[in-house]
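User: I'm new to structure prediction. If I give you an amino acid sequence, what do you actually give back? Let's try with this one:
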Amino acid sequence: MFTMDNTFSQVISDFFAFAFMQRALMAAVLIGILCSVIGVFVVVKGFSFIGAGIAHASFAGVTLGFLLGIHPLFLALLFSLLMVFFVGWATHRGELKLDISVGIFFAFTMALAILFIGLMKQYQAGVYGYLFGDILSVTPSDLWLITGISVFVLTVVGLLYKELQFITFDQEMAEASGLPVTFLYYMLLVLIAMTVVVSLKAVGVILVFALIVTPAAAAYQLVHRLTPMIFISAAIGTGGSIVGLILSYIWDVPSGATIVSLLTLIFFISLWLSPKRRHCRCQE
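Assistant: Good question. You get back a string of structure tokens that encode the predicted 3D arrangement of the chain. For your 284 residues, that looks like this:
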């Protein structure tokens, strides 16, 4: 706790003295960058509801993992990928609109999660850790997993950046140009799913969606082009995650909620300062 007897430097020194806080800080940086970069494609492409659906689908996998004694993140990724391919298949066939297919799977997986929790013979505190998130409980193996997935996802984004940019802004033109649009569409959904799953333990099902969307939405208010939007989003997500983690330590409050609250404040500031908003006002 931060009291009158402590100086800020002492608090920061104490913060870095603990191994679990160091791991939490590294996880916050990695997840802040990863979620913010993927979030730009989610926001621009209009995939926000998909992000929420994947987060809740992954929770069904987490609860089944606890029920069967299997690593929760393995089944969380499996459920997320099943949702991704169901949504992609239904949307590309033209059978269902995107929001309808996501809504169906969203409700179904949440029902499964409640069912799996009901089947558990004893109380499992870890389940609710994934629901609400606990970045302070990140273990060395968790940190390695976060690092590996982050490097993989960001590498794929870097290698396929021009193609992903093309399908994000004009999918029909990309298809007419001969790009493998279906493959890229599914690849983007898989990257979103991996981002959600690897962030679960740190921020939880409830907050991971906000961590993906909010920094990107803030960056969207400030610039028009995709490349600077990605860098600004990453800076907001990383900075907000670090400052939010430190503030949660000082104030002794939940870290995930503090991070998301700070990012939301940054979004409203970006909205207020937005050149786009001023441009629209000048046209009135």
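You can read the tokens as a compact description of the fold. Here is one thing that stands out. The first helix runs from residue 8 to 17.
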